[in-house]
Amino acid sequence: MGIISASNYDEMSDAMKVMKVKNYEELSKTAAEIMINKINLSSSLTLGLATGSTPEGLYRYLVQDHKSRHTSYEHVTTFNLDEYAGLNRDNENSYYYYMNHHLFNHINISPENVHLPNGNTVNLEEECSRYESFIEQNGGIDLQVLGIGSNGHIGFNEPGTPFQAKTHIVELDDTTRKANSRFFHTINEVPTHAVTMGIATIMKSREILLLISGKSKAEAFKRLIEGGISEQFPASILKQHPQVTIIVDRDAYDC
Ligand code: GLP
User: Fold this and answer.
1) d(Cα 180, Cα 187) in Å, to the nearest integer?
2) Which of 33, 80, 108, 227 is most enclosed, with most CB atoms within 10 A?
3) Catalyzes what (predicted)?
């Protein structure tokens, strides 16, 4: 994997760095390299992980690196951002299934160090507060990986979510259900609700890595860079986080 040269950085503010890369492969490799370097520096890192299409390449590189360079996840802990409500963990559209399939089954992470909200429980409210406190008791998240929805959502925090929200139940936007229906047989199968870390939960992470790829995210990237901070565009709050790196590919920044 290549070394990231400083010339790839665009300083947005003191805190937010934008790394422009040529394509999805480079985005995935660069993100993997950042994560691997951190794991090598601190073996007991706590990672916040995301799902969706965007981080699939990153996970592929992490698996490849684990197999070839033996980066160890023995002492790494993970917390996922979100989970659909009402899907069984072995449903292949659950995020639990996704994480095992793309990452956990292929690295030496201990199952007891892997955490996702349980979206398939009778008391979802209770699950939300359990998950929120559990992250805190664990000492918080060192590095949170994020994707972005075309409407600016992060995790499943849809436009209009209060910035002070902690882990909570959300009703998914029609646009989000439509976008995610590509993984299901029909749109009717896409759950209407999910459990997600809140914006406040995400903002407590010590560092954030936001991945933005493809033409369908170009508008969201532009709005993030040029727009103001508003609950109508959840990702905009990241401008107030002290340590954010955005990795964006050409399809998303050059439209
Ligand atoms: C999903 C997830 C988000 C993800 C986003 C973008 O609904 N809940 O965590 O970042 O939407 O997904 P994708 O990477 O597939 O475009």
Assistant:
1) 8
2) 80
3) alpha-D-glucosamine 6-phosphate + H2O = beta-D-fructose 6-phosphate + NH4(+)
Query: Distance between CA atoms of 180 and 133, rounded to whole angstroms?
Result: 29
Whole-angstrom Cα distance, residue 90 to residue 97?
6
The tens digit of pLDDT for each residue in 99-151 reads 999 999 999 999 999 999 999 999 999 999 999 999 999 999 999 999 999 99
Pocket of ligand 1, candidates 24, 53, 54, 94: which has the most ligand atoms within 8 Å of its Cβ, to mutate? 54
* C-alpha to C-alpha distance for 70 and 75, rounded to whole angstroms: 14
Point out the catalytic residue in the list 66, 153, 168, 241: 153
The pLDDT of residue 1 is: 38
- Does the domain at 8-253 match CATH 3.40.50.1360? Answer given as yes
Identify the burial level of 111 via C-beta atoms within 10 angstroms of its C-beta, where 0-12 means exposed, 13-18 middle and 19 or more buried: exposed
Mutate to test the pocket of ligand 1, among 58, 93, 153 (most ligand atoms within 8 A of CB): 153
**For the chain, domain boundaries:** 8-253
Whether ligand 1 lies within 6 angstroms of the CB of 53 is answered as yes
